[in-house]
Design goal:
The chain has helices at 46-49, 59-71, 86-98, 115-119, 137-144, 149-164, 190-203, 233-245, and strands at 4-13, 28-33, 55-58, 76-80, 105-109, 127-130, 168-169, 175-184, 208-212, 251-253. It is of the alpha/beta class. The protein has one domain (4-253): Aldolase class I (TIM Barrel), CATH 3.20.20. Strands 1, 2, 3, 4, 5, 6, 7, 8, 9 and 10 form a 10-stranded mixed β-sheet that branches. It is globular, with a radius of gyration of 18 Å.
Length: 274
């Protein structure tokens, strides 16, 4: 088990869901980890996830980064694509909490995670933010190179919900605990979104869902003609209808073409590098 993580960027970010960013002086303290357990051909952060852009940091340095970001008045610590580094991240969270970290920890993942791993994070993660990508295993294998995505993600989200419950916010609208499920709509695969929403609704129809229309053909999407284009207005409208028809009325819908949830400019030079 490595005693380090690899980070591409960290800093305050204002493109997450409203309860995670607060006002203009707050923001989510995002830490983007290098590498990923999926191999999505359309990955919009492929420099990080597929090309492993980043630098190594010790567990202790990661804990110090979290504490420093808390001092900057951040709303939460947003751990982006953390899955492959979970043992080291778990240690860092424990160290940071002992040193005074009190803002919520957000586990921002792709939902392709074993339940046993998630159980190791219980009482350490406050908010789970999985991107439920596929309701069809054939698409998951075609576009992300993995098997049994649907069953794995459904079980993972059920475990996340068991741990933290439905989203809870304070009087200022800031999230303190709970589950938010994201879903990125793919062009020419609108029925995939319907299947995802049906599964989420079967888990709990009160779950907050963040519907994302930010897709654009990146990385190796050009090799797949059907997804080598942006979404159409009609696809966005149909996806929104599917969401409503599934009885999922809590959450947010991203404006078509918005890139707010994308990574900001990389900042590779950090004062806590070891």
């Amino acid at each position: 088990m490595p005693g380090f993580v690899k980070i591409a960027w960290y800093g305050k970010h204002f493109g997450e869901e409203p309860p995670l960013i607060g006002n203009e002086s707050q923001g989510a303290a995002c830490i983007f980890f290098s590498g990923c357990n999926l191999h999505c051909v359309y990955c919009q952060n492929y420099q990080i996830s597929q090309q492993n852009l980043g630098k190594k940091y010790s567990v202790e340095a990661l804990a110090e980064i979290m504490l420093q970001l808390q001092k900057e008045n951040s709303v939460c610590i947003d751990l982006v694509t953390p899955t492959i580094w979970w043992p080291a991240i778990k240690k860092a969270i424990m160290i940071a909490k002992k040193k005074g970290l009190t803002i919520p920890i957000v586990w921002n993942s792709n939902a392709y995670e074993p339940v046993q791993m998630l159980k190791e994070l219980e009482e350490l993660v406050d908010i789970y933010l999985p991107d439920f990508k596929y309701g069809d295993n054939q698409l998951a294998e075609k576009y992300s190179g993995i098997k049994n995505y649907v069953e794995t993600a459904e079980a993972a989200i059920q475990e996340m919900l068991r741990q933290v419950g439905l989203l809870e916010t304070n009087e200022c609208g800031l999230a303190g605990r709970g589950l938010i499920v994201r879903h990125l709509v793919l062009p020419a695969n609108i029925e995939n979104s319907e299947k995802v929403f049906q599964i989420i609704s079967s888990i709990n129809s009160n779950v907050h869902v963040s519907l994302m229309f930010q897709y654009f053909p990146a990385w190796r999407a050009k090799a797949f003609r059907e997804i080598n284009r942006p979404l159409t207005s009609e696809e966005c409208s149909i996806a929104s209808d599917f969401l409503s028809n599934a009885g999922l009325n809590n959450g947010w819908t991203q404006e078509q073409g918005s890139s707010e949830l994308l990574i900001p400019d990389f900042r590779l030079e950090n004062p806590f590098e070891k």
